[in-house]
Design a protein that fits this description.
single chain; mainly beta; five-stranded antiparallel beta sheet; globular
């Protein structure tokens, strides 16, 4: 008689399969929540979401360049190495009537996007998990709205939305009001500031770790409209300004995140096909005084000036430009360029952002299509 076979169970210590699961894509993990109650509890926990986010940040294959295509009302992610399109985030925008039309993306932090629509409503949205939250109305009159930023305070583990607005002081001069929404407090509060400047674009220019930045024009008496960089620290909740560096390369400029520092790109002549760009960063001395430091230069051939529109952003050292229905990607380090888009596949880009997929769920998040939001 053949010996009886003993039933054996494959056993792995919990820390082993936690390590394995934390390295999987979000889409796979959402499916795995149906495997068993234990996995569902684990994958839904904030601790695991934080571990998975750290794994994704350190994994280049989980990071992408996210471009908002205003023509199609969708976000398209691109591989940061090959610049090839990866996926489109349009499920929440074309099937669920919650964001409205004419939306703008304020920024991307840890896999969460901050979005504002034409009515001034503000949304936080995780496209990987398809969860969202509409923020409550703020304190001040939105008719005096200037601009908005979005960022993360890693010390208090708090996601914050900051709004700049203006109030009239006297003829030709106005002051700034600032209010901040905190995901921990789930409320808005006003921050006292004493600055006078103007701002033309409704979203911030650059998000770096723990702070947001804007290019603004000084409107105080005797300033002669000099250009400044305004920054808001998410941890200290302080607003500061610094003048642009003295340089002949000041015809056009753009800001970007360079190794988690705010950096400035200036250019000598916007009419040239080949442009020489200078890169500056803000440094602090031993007593905390801030000044500009020129880091390096690079040359970029934008081709036809008639077709070239603007520099959208620089993401992880990759410059993203809008060239009349096409996207141009330029790697500052390797000096390689790639153009994406054809006559059949044109883009009307309205911003480029660094994106990493995550399981992050902010307090008050609901699945798209629920919590009173109707599907079309």
């Amino acid at each position: 008689m053949a010996p009886k076979r003993r039933s054996q169970k494959l056993y792995l210590p919990e820390e082993v399969w936690v390590e394995i699961l934390s390295r999987l894509p979000v889409k796979t993990l959402l499916r795995f929540k149906c495997v068993c109650r234990q996995w569902r509890t684990l994958i839904s926990s904030p601790t695991f979401a934080s571990l998975h986010l750290n794994r994704s940040i350190s994994n280049p294959t989980r990071r992408s360049i996210l471009v908002f295509d205003q023509y199609e009302d969708q976000f398209v992610s691109f591989d940061p190495v090959t610049f090839s399109p990866i996926k489109k985030f349009n499920a929440g925008l074309d099937r669920v009537n919650c964001f409205g039309s004419e939306i703008m993306c304020v920024g991307s932090t840890n896999g969460v996007l901050c979005i504002i629509d034409e009515s001034g409503r503000i949304w936080l949205w995780n496209p990987s998990t398809r969860q969202y939250r509409k923020l409550p109305p703020g304190i001040n009159d939105r008719s005096t709205f200037l601009s908005m930023g979005f960022g993360f305070d890693s010390v208090s583990n708090d996601y914050k939305v900051v709004i700049l607005g203006f109030r009239y002081i006297r003829e030709g001069e106005h002051g700034i009001w600032v209010e901040v929404w905190s995901s921990n407090l789930e409320s808005w509060r006003e921050i006292k500031v004493d600055y006078s400047f103007r701002r033309g674009i409704s979203v911030c220019d650059v998000i770096v770790e723990g702070s947001v930045h804007w290019f603004v024009m000084d409107s105080s008496r005797g300033s002669r409209g000099r250009m400044l960089v305004a920054s808001f620290d998410m941890r200290t909740e302080l607003l500061g300004v610094i003048p642009l560096p003295e340089s002949k390369h000041n015809y056009i400029f753009s800001g970007f995140n360079w190794n988690e520092k705010f950096a400035l790109i200036t250019c000598d002549n916007p009419q040239k096909y080949r442009r020489i760009y200078q890169v500056w960063t803000i440094e602090s001395d031993s007593v905390g005084k801030e000044s500009w430091s020129k880091k390096f230069t690079f040359e970029l051939n934008v081709g036809s000036v008639a077709q070239y529109r603007s520099m959208l952003n620089t993401v992880n050292g990759k410059v993203v430009l809008d060239k009349g229905g096409k996207l141009m990607f330029y790697d500052v380090e390797t000096r390689k360029m790639k153009t994406v888009g054809t006559h059949e596949d044109e883009f009307f880009p309205l911003g480029a952002y660094s994106y990493v997929e995550s399981l992050l769920s902010i307090k008050g998040f609901s699945p798209l299509g629920q919590d009173g939001v109707n599907e079309n």
